[in-house]
Write a structure and sequence with these properties.
This protein has a two-stranded antiparallel sheet with strand order 1-2. With about 100 residues, the chain is mostly helical. Helix 2 packs across helix 3, helix 2 packs across helix 4 and helix 3 packs across helix 4. It is built from four helices and two strands; from the N terminus they run ααααββ. Helix content is about 55%, strand content about 10%.
Amino acid sequence: MAEKKTTKKAAAVKAEEPKKATVKKAAAPKAEKKAVVALNAENAGFKAGDVYQALAAAEKALSVKEIAKAAKISEEETLLGLGWLFKEGKLNADDEKVTLA
């Protein structure tokens, strides 16, 4: 019998507690992930090949953003490839656009 009284008492106390309003927290903005570029000769050579192929396919001067979009690589990787190609003398730069030499 004591158990029944306890159960009824607990239920009564629970019913008396004021209901707390649920507060939804705003979702924290997601941090933007930056591309991680491996700085080694092999990776730089591959990115240079991607940049070269994009410029050859376009057959015109392109900006860094346009090259990155055409080659489907990040702008940082594009700059890595451009540096390689400039060092080899395979590119010409006019204003803010790059063409094959």
